[in-house]
Amino acid sequence: MNQKTKRLLGAAVLLIAAVVLALVYQSQRPTGQAGEKTLTIEVVNGEEQEEFTLETLQEFLGAALLENGLVEGEEGAYGLFITTVNGIRADEAKKQWWCLTRNGEMLDTGADSTPIADGERYELTLSVY
After folding, report:
1. Average model confidence (pLDDT) for the chain?
2. Cα angle at 22 between 27 and 116, to 5 degrees?
3. In whole angstroms, how far apart are CA 90 and each of 6, 16, 19, 25, 57?
């Protein structure tokens, strides 16, 4: 086998691997529940706690939070980076950030990629790292 044939074969294998990985990702990625949903969002800032009820047709949490005006943020490489919740801005100088949890458990996804279902409960807690 000459050098040109080896390169073409290698490129073909890489292309096939990329297509297979893309198909696996598409089949495994989270999907949200269609239809109207009611969510409970608890905002925790130190000793202060406030609860909000959101009604939405959105399928992902980030879109629902933005749609209801509860959060503000910046689009980054990993989606929405929440900077402000209920008018309270995390202070980078104090190393503050908004921690997102569902029923007290850390999530493996960001707000933009967290699928939501009716009746779920989420917490946004002002944290320090």
Report:
1. 91
2. 40
3. 54, 44, 40, 33, 28
Residue for token pair 């290698």: 10
pLDDT tens for 47-89 read 999 999 999 999 999 999 999 999 999 998 889 999 999 999 9
Task: Dump the DSSP string for 48-88.
Answer: EEEEEEEEE--SBHHHHHHHTTSEEEEEETTEEEEEEETTE
DSSP state letter for 35: S
88-110 pLDDT, tens digit per residue, is 999 999 999 999 999 999 999 99
Q: What are the residues facing 99 on neighbouring strands?
A: 125
Query: Residue 106 is inside which H or E element, if any?
Result: strand 105-106
Contact 127, 98 (CB under 8 A): yes
In sequence order, which residues have a C-beta less than 8 Å from that of residue 9 and are 6 or more positions away? 1
